[in-house]
Every structure is written in structure tokens, then in C-alpha cells.
Amino acid sequence: MRYRTLLITTASAVSLWASLAAAQTAPKTQTEVEEFVVTGTRAVGRTRLETLAPVDVITTETLQQRGTTELATALATTVPSINFPRPSNTDGTDTIRPATLRGQGPDQTLVLVNGTRRHATALVNTNGSVGRGSAAVDLNAIPSTAIERIEVLRDGASAQYGSDAIAGVINMRLREASSGGGLSVTTGEYVTSFDGFYGGKRDLTDGRTTTVSGWQGLTLLGDGFLTLSAEYRTRQNTNRSDVDPRVTPVRVTSRFGDGDADDLSFYANAGKPLGDTWNLYGWYGYEHRDASSAATYRLPTDATQNIPSVYPNGYLPLITTDTEDNSAGLGIKGEWAGFNVDVNLVYGKNDIDFGVQHTLNPSLGPTSPTSFQAGGLTYDQTVFGADFSREVEVGLVKPLNVAFGLEARRENYKINPGEPGSYIRGPFTTLALGSRGFTGFTPSNIVDVDRDAVGVYLDLEGNLTEKLSASAAVRYEDYSDFGGNTTGKLSARYDFTPEFAIRGSVSTGFRAPALQQQYYTATSILYINGVPFETGTYPSVSPVGRALGGKPLEPETSDNYALGFVFRKGAFELTVDAYQIKVKDRIVLSETLTGSATAAPGTNARIIYDLLSPYGASAARFFINGVDTDTKGVDIVAHYKIVDDQAGTFDLTAAGNVNDFSVTKTPTTSATILPTPVSLFARQATLRFEDGAPKHKLTLQGDWKKEGWGATLRTTFYGDVLSPGTLADGSGDSHTGSEGIVDLEGRYTFPMGVTVSVGADNLFDGYPLQIAPNLNTSGAAPFSSFSPFGFGGRFVYGRLSYKW
């Protein structure tokens, strides 16, 4: 089946290119409309192909020509260097999934909205998924209907934009319209089948998703604009678990896949001229998401976690996340004393409340409640920015664009406790305590911390000669918790001819430790010989963290190198950009160090027990610096557009990424702590970094339109991904295998402006390799959560849209 799918995939792509070649009988070529960009450059008037660093421009139309209405998923299938897996059974990460750029961490890509820094989520990814240990921006909190276009800068840019821009920048430009509008309804579901190891072939229809979105442009006070956008999406869960051979009769007991979710989002973007040279602008965004995902099934015979009188057939806890996201910005821009001025104030907040349903606290006995409020997380930030730029004549540089400015930021992070029943130890002390599936945050986990940061920058860009352009940037940032950091960047471009140019850059970067990483704590109580001990995740500077060698977190730093070329001739364009990203002192979540009161004196386990017992703890993990990595890769993007009077317009894109990630240094415990040092970032964590994303990814896409008809055919080839196990010999590892995924959509626009679209994402129902039965003895998780294209199978959909 796998080889047949790959064959069909390849044949589909080849057929597309062949048909387009046949359509070129005396074709008319058309040069792309020049796309001016504002990301990666502060010079006015540079187009996408004139920049000193690679910038992808993705329009709303491109994002919406597929079945998924999730922004992050659509972006990942459009930009090959972006990876967006769909993990399951990872608590809050099932709902707030992180994306990565060029294999770096989710928090090493800076996300902007209208050129201003967007806030991260309050969630810390602490489970075994891509991005473990990170607190990233939730791209899916912004509806695609609110966006005019997205600019992705694939180059280190900390010297230009500050912390987090180690891998690059994603800048989402909101829609600006004073008239017109649109309405769209998309509905679809998975229609799929796979052969389980335990249950044989399973034919499934699930995951029905319906999205209603719309936008309207309005005139604001005569000469301004107000664009309103809204989206509602409801999604039913999917389940790819196999039958459970442990129960009689055998049946599916687990739930592995997407959770249930209801999303409601709203955005308003406005602008109003103030005279001839000044403009007032602002926006407000709101998103609310109710979601539910599954934890691990508890067997009816589990003597510590189940009470048969409550759940005679066992139970499957469901983790609920109630997420609310708010963002608002207000600014003014114009000209003053010859300078272009932009001053703005932006606020963002992410609030997450956890709950657990269909569960119990076994230690409370048969009267235990079956649902609990488990506490929550809150993160918010306020950012003030002031940017100034102007062109000046300096010697041979004509003109030289001089830009400078400052950014002041205040951040706050909170942890709120759950209800007592979600974490307490009840009278049945031999049974597990706390709500099963997700133990609530305890009063000792309460956190309310904040910090300030101020950054200033200088950015110079200009043409040294008719063919040579260059830029230089330097930025200094000072944080109230760890001090200052300085980064710099040099970029250059040489146009040998109007058709061919080379470009490159050298830069340093940094990422400040997030408040979430510095202060996140989650503990549960374990009883050892009748004595309560805390175990869990602690701040590195807490008494528990310091006892094991924890230190205050320092910023990550990077050295970035890039070299590439741009070729364009008529309607054809090709960009090739090689890069190297060397990161030092990456912040990671350590291995769990466990103590034992019964271990022999002088052993690591006994020493850890003696170190932690004064604090009532028995096992701990914490965030640490100390992992160094080296990434080498290349991005290739080719584009060609054909206009033929008879065949129509063909828009062809081939885009690929090759990425090789290596961990070059890992930390160990200090010899002063343990006589036999142990790794704090061991084999499994290292391989998640190195092989948790595809080393190569290729997308071939063809768009065709003629009069009212249109179609999109997209083939994405994913390289193999490793899901490392815990066994040192590798026998617990699994692979996703290489796979080709085909998406197809056809559409027709009626004269009155209504467009009907039908299609299928993953047309040929491709799946990653299944996990071997000896590694999936319960049948619960037959596929790897590291699969870069998920494991849902074929998704068929229809869409009805109207523009006015």
C-alpha cells in the first residue's frame, strides 16, 4: 500500500508538470506582481526577490485552498522549512500545538502581528513531543480570514527584532479593507482506513469539522478603514487507537488523535489618517477555545488507580483546556523632521484553565468526584515600541536607510491552584492520589512573577554600488532578571545581472529564558513508607532545584551564517539559500532525578534521596542551560507562471528543505552533587532534537484557473522521522518512514460571486509506519506523535464561499 501511494503521488506530480508543459504551445508568460515586504528590512520599496535574506510571502488565498482551516497546518504545508506535527496524549500540547522553523525550537522563531511582537502562550510543553520544554506562540489563535498575508523571514534576526528570532521571523499582516467582504463555510471529515496489528482493518469516519468565517471592510470616519473578521470552528475528535488485547472482549479502550474542540475568534483592524502625513492605527483580537483530549486508559484491574465500584470497566480520563487569548495594539505613524516614525503599544494575554473529566482521585475512595478543576496558567505582556527611519546621502551610499528605535516590555506569569480534590491525598493511602490523567496544581505551585526588558537598536541598509547592497544591525537588550545581551548582523547582496544575484548574512542571536521556563512548577504527592514526598517539575532556583545543582537560567546564544542566490528570468524564479545555525546553552528540561530511601549508601539514588528529603521531595526535574547544537541546511524555492489563452493560467511552485540537526554538547550532573555523574539530557531527549523532524521535505504545487474554474494539486514528500524510545540499545525506537501526501481541490465560481470547492487532503490515505506491537502492547498509540503530517488519514471536504 505504501509503495502504491508513493507511486501514485509521484505520478500525480509528474502528470501535472507534463500537462503544464503541453499547455505551453506558444504560451504567454507573465511576471509576478512585485510583492513589497516589510519583514527583514526597514528600507522602503524592497520586493520579495530584492531582499538581502529569504522571505516567503503567503497570501490568505493560498492558505485557504485546502481542507484544513488551522493556520499552522496550512502554513506548514506551504513553507517546507516549517514543521507542525499533531501530537496526542501530551496533555495541553494536544490543544496548543507548537510549530518549528528550520528544525529549531518553537520558541526560537519570533512571531509578529503587524510588525509588533506577539505574546507566547502560558503553556509549557513538558511531555515527550516536538518542542519539549518550550513556551511558544499559538499560531492557531489567529483566524486566517483576518490575515492579508504572512511574511516568513528565514534568517536569524535577533539584531533586528530582539529575543527569540534565532531561526527567523513570522510576521502576520492583518487585512486592511474599507469595503468589500467575504463569507465562507467549510465542512469535512476523515474517511479513512488502516490495518491495525490487533484489530485488523479499521474503516473510520470521524473528526467532522465545520468552520464558518467571514470578514467585512467598513469606512471609518470618512477616510479610514475598519476591517472586522470572525471565525467559528467546531471539531469532533478522531481516534486511531487499535483494539486493546488486554481486555475481554477485546475492544478499543483508548483515544489517540485530535481532541474535540470549539474555537471562536474575532479580530478588528483599523486605521485613520490624521492629516496628510500621520495615521492612527490599532487592532483587537480575541480567541476562545474549549477543547478535550484523552489521557491514558486505566484498566478495571488497576489496583492503585481504579475503584471497580465506580468504574467496573475501567475508565479513560479526559483533559479539558479552556483557553482565552486577547491581544490589542494602538499606534501612530507618520513623518517628523524628515524621519518616518512609528510608535505603538501592544498588549497580549493567554489564559488556560485545566479540568479533568471521567476520572477520580483514587485516594478519596468510592465517594471520589469524577471531575475536577485542576488549576490554570496565565501569561501576559505589554510592549511599547518606537521606530524611526530615514534615507540620507552618505558618500557613495545612495541612499543609506538609517533606522533606530527602542522596545520596552513587561511580562507576567501566574500559576493558579486547582480544587483540593485534584491533588490531595485522601484516607485510602495505598491508592494513587490526585485526579488521574492530570493532577491539579497545588498551593505550593502558586506563582506570580514579572520582569521588565528594554532594547535599543540601530539598523543601516543601502546600496554601496549599483550592484552591491549591504546592511548592518546591532541591538542591545537589558532584562531585569538576568542582565544584558548584545547581538549584531551583517548582510550583503550582489546583483551580477538583473537576473542573477547572490546574498548572504552573518549574525549573532539570542533568546531570553521565558518566565514559563524559569518558574513553571507542577508537583504531585507520593507516599514512601507512609511519608509524603513531592515529585515533579521545579524551578531551577527553587530549594529542590538548587539541591540538585540548578542555577539561574541564562539566555541562549547563536551564530548564524547564510549564503544563497536568486535567479529570475521572465516568469521563472529560483532561490537557493544555505544556512548554518549554531546555538549555545540551549534551555532544556532535564531528565528526572529519582531518589530511593532503600538504596545503598553512596549510590546516586540514595544521595538524591538524602538531598531532597529535607524539602519533602523524592524526584525532580528542572530547566537547565547547557545543550549546544549545530544545524546545517538549505532551502530551495522555484516558481513559474504561465498564461495561455486556451488552457488558462498555471501557477507552479516547487519548494524544498534539507535540514541536518546535531547535538554537540549535553550537560551532566556535577561531580560535587553525585559521585557518578549522569546525563541531564540523555539519549531519548537528544534524538528528539536530532531526528524528531524530517531531514528533508519537498512540496510540489500546481494551481490552475480558467474563467470560473480552478484547481490546486499539491504533493508533499516527507522524510523519515525517528520517535526514540527509552531503551539505550534503540530497541524501543520507532520510525514514521518516508511518505508522499497528495492534496487536491477543485472549485468553480459562479457569475454572482459564489465559489463551490470540493477536495481531499491526503487524497490517497497515507499513514506513517505503525509502531510495533511489542512497543504498543495496549493498542493505544499505533502511530508516532512525531509524524510531520499527522496520522489522521484522508480528509474530504467541501467549501462554499462568497465575496462581495
Task: Report on the architecture of this protein.
By secondary structure, the chain is mainly β. The protein has a single domain (2-803), classed as TonB-dependent receptor, beta-barrel domain (Maltoporin, Chain A, Beta Barrel), CATH 2.40.170. Helices cover 8% and strands 49% of the residues. The protein is built from 8 helices and 35 strands. It has a 22-stranded antiparallel β-barrel. Strand 16 (371-394) and strand 17 form a beta hairpin. It is globular, with a radius of gyration of 27 Å. The two termini are 45 Å apart. The model is unreliable at 1-33 (pLDDT under 50).
What attributes does this structure have?
804 residues, 22-stranded antiparallel barrel, Maltoporin, Chain A, single chain, 35 strands, 5-stranded mixed beta sheet, disordered N terminus, mainly beta
CATH architecture name: Beta Barrel
CATH superfamily: TonB-dependent receptor, beta-barrel domain
Just give the CATH class.
Mainly Beta
Report Rg: 27 Å
How many β-strand stretches? 35
Unreliably modeled segments: 1-33
| Helical amount | under 10%
* Most strands sheet: 22 strands, antiparallel, barrel
The fraction of residues in strands falls at: over 45%
Structural class from helices and strands? mainly beta
What is the rounded distance between the termini? 45 Å
Mean of residue pLDDT values? 92
Principal-axis shape:
globular
Question: What is the CATH T-level topology?
Answer: Maltoporin, Chain A
Q: Please give the domain count.
A: 1
- State the helix count: 8
